[in-house]
């Protein structure tokens, strides 16, 4: 039985394609411990080809930035959307990712006849859609979407770093690196951390235990001070 939230996609190519505009969709930020998950949808213009489109993970930060600007300038239309930390904790990361993807498609100025989504899952859409495993390396529109999503999320992480520099978001982009895990050990979680992710939940539990211990010690000290001298 198909889920109402998202569909497990068939991986065989469809035998027919609807005529019209094709949109590529991809996400960035499923794995990190903090920040929103971001999705992008892109409809490329065949009359304005963009050289160098590839899976964003295979590109340098400078290459992504340059391609990001070209995509915005040359594509027929683009849309970037996200699902918040609260939505991730409420719906789980897969459900939140599907939500962000649906928002990205709904945000396109032009309605596509078909949507190609990177991976093996499909969000619930009102247009023909197909999942493409490794689509970010195979389909240029998905490559473009992967670049927009990645650059947008990296810029969000720069903002998080400015707000909470102790965690090092500018460097690890929210992923569970040794530096990030060490910061969680020292500082606990901030408002941008995903409470449903195990390292964050463990950090919150540790802080709760420490706070409870301090409270007990303070109460014991107050009790001792209130006792009359023998």
Q: What does this 3D model show about the protein?
A:
The structure is a single chain. A hairpin with an 8-residue loop joins strand 2 and strand 3 (37-43). The protein is of the alpha/beta class and 230 residues long. Strands 4-3-2-5-7 form a 5-stranded mixed beta sheet. A two-stranded antiparallel ribbon has the order 1-6. Helices cover 47% and strands 16% of the residues. Helix 1 (61-74) crosses helix 4. It is built from 7 helices and 7 strands. Mean pLDDT is 88; it is low at 10-15 and 212-218. The longest helix is centred in the C-terminal third of the chain and has 29 residues, at 198-226. It has helices at 61-74, 85-106, 135-138, 140-163, 169-172, 178-187, 198-226, and strands at residues 6-8, 22-28, 37-43, 77-83, 114-118, 121-123, 128-132.
CA(first)-CA(last) distance: 75 Å
CATH architecture of the largest domain: 2-Layer Sandwich
Could you report the average pLDDT, rounded to the nearest whole number?
88
Shape annotation? elongated
Q: What is the number of domains? A: 2
Structural class: alpha/beta
What would the keywords be for this entry?
single chain, 230 residues, alpha/beta, Nucleotidyltransferase, domain 5, five-stranded mixed beta sheet, 7 strands, 16% strand
């Amino acid at each position: 039985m198909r889920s109402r939230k998202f569909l497990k996609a068939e991986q065989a190519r469809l035998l027919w394609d609807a005529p019209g505009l094709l949109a590529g969709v991809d996400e960035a930020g499923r794995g990190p411990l903090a920040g929103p998950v971001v999705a992008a949808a892109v409809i490329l213009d065949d009359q304005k080809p963009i050289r160098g489109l590839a899976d964003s993970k295979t590109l340098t930060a400078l290459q992504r930035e340059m391609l990001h600007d070209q995509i915005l300038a040359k594509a027929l239309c683009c849309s970037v959307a996200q699902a918040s930390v609260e939505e991730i904790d409420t719906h789980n990361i897969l459900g939140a990712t599907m939500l962000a993807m649906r928002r990205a498609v709904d945000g396109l100025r032009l309605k596509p006849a078909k949507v190609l989504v990177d991976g093996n899952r499909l969000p619930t859409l009102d247009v023909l859609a197909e999942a493409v495993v490794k689509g970010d390396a195979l389909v240029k529109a998905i490559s473009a979407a992967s670049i927009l999503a990645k650059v947008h999320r990296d810029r969000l992480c720069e903002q998080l770093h400015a707000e909470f520099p102790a965690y090092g978001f500018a460097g690890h982009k929210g992923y569970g690196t040794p530096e990030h895990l060490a910061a969680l050990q020292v500082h606990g979680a901030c408002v941008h951390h995903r409470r449903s992710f195990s390292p964050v939940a463990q950090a919150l539990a540790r802080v709760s235990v420490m706070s409870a211990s301090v409270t007990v010690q303070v109460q014991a000290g107050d009790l001792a001070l209130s006792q009359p001298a023998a």
